[in-house]
Amino acid sequence: MSTPAPTGRRERKKQATRAALREAALRLAIRDGIENLTVERIADEADIALRTFFNYYSSKEEAVVATVSSAAEALIAEFRARPRTESVLRAFREAVLVILNESDAANRDYLAVIRLIQRSPSLVPQQLAVLAAQEKALAEAIASRVGDAGPVYPAVCAAALLSALRVVVNQWLDADRVLSAADLGRQVDLAITELAAGLDRS
User: Fold this and answer.
1) What is the rounded distance in angstroms from the CA atom of residue 110 to the CA atom of residue 69?
2) What number of CA atoms fall less than 13 Å from residue 167's CA on the CB side?
3) Engineered SS bond to 86: which of 90, 149, 180, 201, CB 3.0-4.6 Å?
4) Can you point out the beta strands (E) in 60-202?
5) Distance between CA 127 and CA 197 in Å, rounded?
């Protein structure tokens, strides 16, 4: 796995500010509901100037869904870092497992945002934008991994993999079970096994 380049002090400060706003937005949205959330309250909760908020997010919806966006970026980065000897499906599986095992708190925040989205229609457009960006980024990463496969395979593969992951997460939410990274990992395995076996059945 490649080692990421070290970040400078300015970049670390920007990352910390972005995370503080993201966490404040989620905390307030869970506590008070998205309809009662304002960008002013998010900035105040994060102890950050209101004008600074708009350097990072364009709306309260974007700030709340930023946890999903952050998780998506981490997953793509981990996929890109997987050894080229791994197949596409194997690399995606391993990337998901790495992300799952990195932080229980991050996993809880991710699921909390998905629950918020399910009951807050105003968050759906922002979620769709994140999903579209993630699917495009994964398709580009797959194309880079497999070489000259044409435009269809990377796009179809990315859509299928991310759809399988969403199915697993939604099933967990529907079952209302406590998240276990190990159990969720097994469900990801099952979903990817289905994709590897092929979907055309009589």
Assistant:
1) 10
2) 14
3) 90
4) none
5) 30
CB 71 within 8 A of CB 110: yes
- What totals of helices (H) and strands (E) does the chain contain, helices first? 9, 0
Measure the CA–CA gap between 100 and 171, rounded to whole angstroms. 16
**Residue type at 15?**
Q
Q: How many Å apart are CA 67 and CA 139, to the nearest integer?
A: 21
CA distance 110 to 107: 5
**CA distances in angstroms from 16 to 23, 71, 132, listed in the order given:** 10, 16, 25
Handedness of CA 164, 167, 172, 173 (dihedral sign): positive
DSSP per-residue codes, 31-60: HH-GGG--HHHHHHHHT--HHHHHHH-SSH
For the chain, the C-alpha Rg in angstroms (whole number) is: 18
Residue count (the chain): 202
Topology of domain 62-197 in CATH is Tetracycline Repressor; domain 2 (1.10.357)
pLDDT tens per residue across span 156-199: 999 999 999 999 888 878 776 665 667 778 888 899 999 989 88
Domain range annotation of the chain: 62-197
**pLDDT tens digits, one per residue of 16-73:** 999 999 999 999 999 999 999 999 999 999 999 999 999 999 999 999 999 999 999 9
